[in-house]
Amino acid sequence: MAEPISRSRDLDKLLLRPGHLVLIGFDFVKLRDDLQEYVRILVVGAGGLGCELLKDLALSGFRNLEVIDMDRIEVSNLNRQFLFRLEDVGKPKAEVAAKRVMERVSGVNIVPHFCRIEEKELEFYSEFSIIVLGLDSIEARSYINAVACGFLAEYDSNDQPLEETVKPMIDGGTEGFKGHARVILPGMTPCFECTIWLFPPQVKFPLCTLAETPRTAAHCIEYAHLIKWDEVHSGKSFDPDNPEHMQWVYLEAAKRAQLFGIPGVTYSLTQGVVKNIIPAIASTNAIISAACALETLKIVSGCSKTLSNYLTYNGVEGLHTKVTEFVKDKDCLVCGPGILIELETSVTLKMFIDQLEDHPKLLISGASVTVRGKNLYMAAPPLLEEMTRSNLGLPLFELMDKSRTGIVHVSGTAGKGDKRQSCLRKLRVASRLSMESQIPTWLVEHKFKNPWIR
Ligand SMILES: [Zn+2]
């Protein structure tokens, strides 16, 4: 059945005619059909931004979408995550979002994945033309960024990777009335890790301010939450999901605010401060998602130059938006050529894994090791651990089919204390012969005969 003409009218204006901004190789005759046929897009996250992204991408003519999200729908999502209804509460977000968009947009196929992003093999991610991120966590972004950067291969003498190995990412993010959309071409433009400083550390108030000189409603709330609670409830820990606990903190904060003449303490602000909730605004999600969907279309079609490379949107007072061109960190551990680790050919996989824990730039514990998609050792789950355990005693050199240099992917937990997070690193392993076999045979023989040579 022929599609109604109106469905792709706007898309055709972009894709079915040439223009001054189109990139080399732009073939406007076949393009629209190719987009629908061959391009596969992964949307990471099916929350506020993810719902918008799936809808926008489906309406932009993409037909092969997949979405991954580990969360289930909660009542508090319904005000902005517009694909969900009251009867969906408790169901996986990815599944419901995929179903709803397929019901409304004919011809699109969306495959949902209800799981953690770390549960998927690297190969899963390699199959997509482009990865679009609608996440709210820095850790999850870091992880996907490392996965995409891990596909980079064969750097030339200028440390530029092979273009075919570049897996583009579009990252969207919103926080209240503010948001960003950025284009990441790993190895070519700054990756997420190159500009990690863009995410400031969470605001923590000094305890002395809370205890002695509160100036804002948030100070009063944190006083009740962090100081007063422990004084009164010795030993009983505060549970942010217990409404009675929250109510107690709210009343204490209100008392303190009155004492210091500070206005503004409410129950919902108490929840916001204690749980560190940043309100999500549907319009911000819609605007950022539209920017991300457009960049996706531009990258895969070449119908226009892409954003270079970071757009910020601020709707707090009036509207302010601008684009900044950030630069790549040439020493980036994630999108650069990778840390070089030199090993002797006799070093076993176990010894290699132990070294990762002490390496000052890595500090990875509980590492799993993969070479060219082959799992050499998996620290978890137990079944895979058992299957790969026998490799631990074998030399890494042999496990890498005796190639002198190679890329090794390592995943595990990095950092110390409560800063620990799952991470994925790409390493360049270069093997050299063991010291012993580098010594010329005549010397070895000589050594045994002549006690003066050590
Ligand atoms: Zn980087």
UniProtKB/TrEMBL annotation:
Entry-linked SUPFAM superfamilies: Activating enzymes of the ubiquitin-like proteins
Catalytic reaction equation(s): ATP + [NEDD8 protein] + [E1 NEDD8-activating enzyme]-L-cysteine = AMP + diphosphate + [E1 NEDD8-activating enzyme]-S-[NEDD8 protein]-yl-L-cysteine
Any one of the GO BP annotations: protein neddylation
Keyword Plastid: no
Protein name from the UniProt record: NEDD8-activating enzyme E1 catalytic subunit
Ranges of residues in domain E2 binding: 341-432
Entry keyword annotation includes Ligase: yes
PANTHER family named among the record's database cross-references: NEDD8-ACTIVATING ENZYME E1 CATALYTIC SUBUNIT, UBIQUITIN-ACTIVATING ENZYME E1
Pathway membership: Protein modification; protein neddylation
Active-site residue list: 208
Function: Catalytic subunit of the dimeric E1 enzyme, which activates NEDD8.
One Gene Ontology term, aspect cellular component: cytoplasm
CDD domains: Uba3_RUB (cd01488)
